[in-house]
Amino acid sequence: MNDQSPGRGRRALDRLRRGGGSADLAALKERLDDLEVKVAETRRLRRRVAELEADLQEARRLNRRVAELLDIVEELLVPLSLRDEERVKAFLDSHTVPL
């Protein structure tokens, strides 16, 4: 990274307009190259953050579904003598998704 002040490029441009040397032009080109690299990296990082956010949402959705399935399995594995058939039917009906 370059710790130059933001006004340095502007001052170099003013010197070029007044007939400054090629060193100022080279400095401007170098600064422009640095900025282009930073812009490209920023864009890449924004895309990556968006991908990670989408992946996180998918993981949350899957975790919720696993929790729902575990609830169903627990309800169905209760010993028959303790099971309330109406409650099981109501539970299954409320968690059944038509295909």
Summarize the structure.
The protein has 99 residues and is mostly helical. The protein is 78% helix and 0% strand.
What does this molecule look like?
The protein contains three helices and no strands. With 99 residues, it is mainly α. The radius of gyration is 32 Å and the shape is rod-shaped. It starts with 6 loop residues before the first helix and ends with a helix. It has one domain.
Mass-distribution shape:
rod-shaped
Number of helices, counting only DSSP H or I runs of 4 residues or more: 3
Order of helices and strands: HHH
**Average predicted confidence as pLDDT:** 80
N- to C-terminal distance = 55 Å
* Structural domain tally: 1
Radius of gyration, whole Å: 32 Å
How many strands appear in the DSSP assignment? Answer: 0
Q: Please identify the structural class as seen in this structure.
A: mainly alpha
* Regions with little confidence, pLDDT below 50 for 5+ residues: none
Largest sheet data: none
Question: Percent range for helical residues?
Answer: over 70%
Question: Approximately what portion of the residues adopt beta-strand conformation?
Answer: under 5%
